[in-house]
Design a protein that fits this description.
Its cofactor is Mg(2+). The chain has one domain (3-121): HUPs (Rossmann fold, 3-Layer(aba) Sandwich), CATH 3.40.50. A five-stranded parallel beta sheet has the order 3-2-1-4-5, with helices on both faces. The longest helix has 17 residues, at 92-108. By secondary structure, the protein is α/β, with parallel strands linked by helices. Helix content is 41%, strand content 18%.
Length: 164
């Protein structure tokens, strides 16, 4: 079985993330969405809560599962029996950091390949941090996050003081 890992902090999952997951699900036998923590970020929700939101919006994808990932991606990939990491690229600016990460992962797990999927043009500007900022300032995030979690995202990420 060809298993791929689609890792991220998904704080929150966006329509761009979901598009990459859907497209990856057509390329691989099984896709594991790995919800991790970024030491440089303080998410509003726990990894388990973010995983539940992703499960809700990927429920129609039979070959996609969602797991909380702790520790290194390479260790998680080994545990899952995966030899592929799928990453979305929005713009050339994403490539440099993703390339570095892919090279590090390959150093730690030589059998692990990274596959880059270019974002659809309508998602090329989209990021979780932009969604958080828009929601915190009372803006409409419709179309930026999956419909199935729109109200949840509005409630969690909106704040009257405008702080994220």
């Amino acid at each position: 079985m060809n298993i791929a890992i689609c890792p991220g902090s998904f704080d929150p999952i966006t329509t761009g993330h979901l598009d990459i997951i859907r497209r990856a699900s057509k390329l691989f036998d099984h896709v594991v969405v790995a919800v991790g923590s970024n030491l440089r970020k303080q998410p509003r929700l726990s990894a388990a809560e973010r995983a539940r939101l992703i499960e809700k919006v990927t429920a129609d994808l039979e070959n996609v599962s969602v797991e909380v990932m702790e520790g290194l991606l390479v260790d998680f990939a080994r545990e899952q029996g995966a030899r592929v990491v799928v990453k979305g690229l929005r713009a050339v600016s994403d490539f440099e950091s993703e390339f570095e990460q892919a090279q590090l992962n390959r150093t730690l797990y030589p059998e692990l390949e990274t596959v880059f999927i270019m974002s659809a043009s309508q998602h090329s500007f989209l990021s979780s941090s932009a969604v958080r900022e828009i929601a915190a300032l009372g803006g409409d995030v419709r179309g930026l996050v999956p419909d199935g979690i729109l109200e949840t995202v509005r409630q969690i990420y909106s704040r009257s003081d405008g702080k994220i």
